[in-house]
Amino acid sequence: MTLFDNMTTVSVYTAITVTLMIWFGAGRNPFTVAGLFLRELIFNRKYMLHFVALILILFCNKFELQIESHMKQAHDFATLFQSIEGNFVSTLQHTFENKYLTPILAFMYVVVFQAMLIASIAIYTNRSKDRMMFYAICYAIMINYLVAIPFYLFFPVSEVWYHDPQHVRFLMLDAFPDFENQYRALSGLNNCFPSLHTSISVTLAILAVRSGIKRWAWFCSISAAIIIFTIFYMGIHWLIDMCGGLVLATIAATVGMKLSRLTLAQRSRRGRSLTPSATSQVQFLSEDAK
Fold first, then answer.
1. Gap between the Cα atoms of 208 and 120, Å rounded
2. How would you write the chain as a 3-class SS string?
3. Least crowded by CB within 10 Å, which of 51, 67, 90, 216?
4. Residue ranges per domain, the chain?
5. What whole-number distance in Å separates Cα of residue 146 and Cα of residue 58?
6. Mean pLDDT (whole number) for 152-172
7. Mean pLDDT across the stretch 160-179?
8. What is this structure's pTM?
9. Which residue ranges does UniProt annotate as crossing the membrane (predicted)?
């Protein structure tokens, strides 16, 4: 069953999914939340700088592919991974493969994964007390990419279906036939370890739990579990890739939370340091008036 014809279809599905996620997670009109996001982006300099930094780090993955294309081909560690974990992926795929399940999981991999990130940013912008979570998600995603990209450059691991086509099939093509031409530019064939689909989705789930928004925490946690299952079902990632992604997610979420607290603490201290001077200025004007 063909679910995606091109990236335009992916964009439309993503826009609809993000809108529904914001409504569900924030409990407010998604367009109201979008307005708050735009206001913060325009009038809050610190917010804007963090958001721009997040966007720039997401583009680094594309630059990594360009750099990799000019590098001398390094050793492919997929053979090593297969020798360690055996036929885990092929066994799982053959056990669960189903023509009705494939498009559902393709939707999770292509649409829900990126929609969760976009919606999380909007949801944490919705309430001022969640602002710490906004900074946390910015730092955590940046850490995910900054750690993963060196591995992609110097520790290449081919996708399972590409390395072992005799036993594993790339099921994504059943739902997205032109995936290799339309989507492949965003992800290299040997950019497997650690799995960013695992690390980012789990990072979002951990932060959602820390946010205290229970319905969003449940949604992100369940989605992360399904996405992890999907990377094996589609024949993309190795079990070791997933393990690396889990470790990276734990580190990124923890460090992201600590950095966000430091950011807000510095802002609070700066606010307190300005208060005495402002008070002195008022007293000086009062005395002058006398």
1. 8
2. CCCCCCHHHHHHHHHHHHHHHHHHHHCCCHHHHHHHHHHHHHHCHHHHHHHHHHHHHHHHHHHHHHHHHCCCCCCCCHHHHHHHHCCHHHHHHHHHCCCCHHHHHHHHHHHHHHHHHHHHHHHHHHCHHHHHHHHHHHHHHHHHHHHHHHHHHHCCECCHHHHCCCCCCCCHHHHCCCHHHHCHHHCCCCECCCCHHHHHHHHHHHHHHHHCCHHHHHHHHHHHHHHHHHHHHCCCCCHHHHHHHHHHHHHHHHHHHHHHHHHHHHHHHHHHHHHHHHHHHHHHHHHHHC
3. 67
4. 7-68+76-282
5. 10
6. 95
7. 96
8. 0.89
9. 6-26, 47-65, 104-125, 132-155, 188-209, 216-240, 246-264
Q: For 45-67, how does the pLDDT look when each residue is reduced to its tens digit (9 = 90+)?
A: 989 999 999 988 877 777 776 77
Q: Whose structure tokens read 């036993």? A: 167
Answer for the pair 235, 109: CB distance below 8 angstroms, yes or no. no
- Name every residue whose Cβ is closer than 8 Å to that of residue 246 and which is 6 or more positions away in sequence: 198, 199, 202
Alpha carbon distance 143, 199 (integer Å):
10
For the record, the structure tokens of 128 come out as: 């001022």
What are 198-231's pLDDT values in tens digits? 999 999 999 999 999 999 999 999 999 999 999 9
Question: Distance between CA atoms of 12 and 126, rounded to whole angstroms?
Answer: 23
